[in-house]
Amino acid sequence: MTPRLLPTLLLLLLGGPPTVRPAPPTCYSRMLSLSREITGDFQGLQATEPSEPCVRYLPRLYLDIHNYCVLAKLRDFVASPQCWNVAQVDALKDRVRKLYTIMNSFCRRDLVFLSDDCSALEYPTPVTTVLPDRQG
User: ∠33-127-58 over CA atoms, to 5°?
Assistant: First the structure.
């Protein structure tokens, strides 16, 4: 190795890989991740708050941003009079309001509704994964 190449090679090795900046979230990815977080938080709230009887009477909150009825579902949840003074429910309602605003204002053009089955948001069907059949 030439004496000039050694310091350059050493500098490259010690410097590590170049910093990679992730792409900023798109409207769609933000809506999808926030809806999943809200659904998970709601299910957790139902499981951990048996001391608050009002939680039982909150509207069900299973969100599918591809279902047209989700906008009405979000509005109903925020407007529900149950649990006005429960901090966790208030925080959840704030996040639901934020998702509604994102969907109805900022990302309206990015939405593609694939269904309008409102009952699917009340009692969602479990997602099952079917493994491909191996043929050999």
Answer: 65
